[in-house]
């Protein structure tokens, strides 16, 4: 069990929201066998910790949970449970209980990944793929969207 993350590009929030209605998600093939959106599907590579660690490594900055800024698009930010009691009271099929969730990731994260020099790929891959004792062990165009759902 884990959380699946689809990272994909969409020109705006309305288009990204429509991607949530596609059977199989935003990366599902269309009628011509091509993915509906340019992107990649992952398991366990969440934007705040694991992808954030990668971006922090590339930038050569300490990792924090806000290295990658994101904004909740769906479910409505107005419907976020305010406390644990409200979260427990959600119906079993509530989007907050089941997913998927849609976040817009900040453009600087996209730019950091796109601008990685070819000669640093191996160095970054080894550091990012190495042992993670804790998150603090990390050394110092269109919008990008992330949708998450439990697997």
UniProtKB/TrEMBL annotation:
Q: Any idea what this protein is called?
A: Uncharacterized protein
Q: Where is this region: Disordered?
A: 75-96, 127-151
UniProt lists compositionally biased (Low complexity) regions at 134-151
What residue spans carry the Basic and acidic residues bias annotation?
79-88
């Amino acid at each position: 069990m884990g959380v699946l993350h689809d990272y994909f590009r969409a020109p705006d929030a309305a288009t990204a929201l429509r991607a949530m209605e596609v059977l199989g998600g935003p990366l599902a093939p269309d009628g011509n066998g091509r993915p509906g959106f340019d992107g990649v599907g992952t398991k366990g590579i969440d934007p705040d910790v694991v992808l954030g660690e990668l971006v922090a490594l590339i930038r050569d900055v300490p990792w924090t949970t806000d290295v990658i800024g994101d904004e909740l698009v769906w479910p409505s930010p107005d419907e976020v449970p305010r406390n644990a009691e409200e979260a427990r009271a959600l119906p079993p099929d509530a989007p907050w209980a089941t997913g998927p969730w849609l976040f817009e990731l900040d453009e600087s994260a996209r730019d950091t990944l796109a601008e990685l020099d070819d000669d640093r790929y191996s160095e970054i891959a080894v550091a990012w793929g190495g042992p993670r004792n804790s998150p603090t062990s990390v050394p110092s165009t269109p919008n990008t969207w992330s949708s998450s759902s439990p697997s």
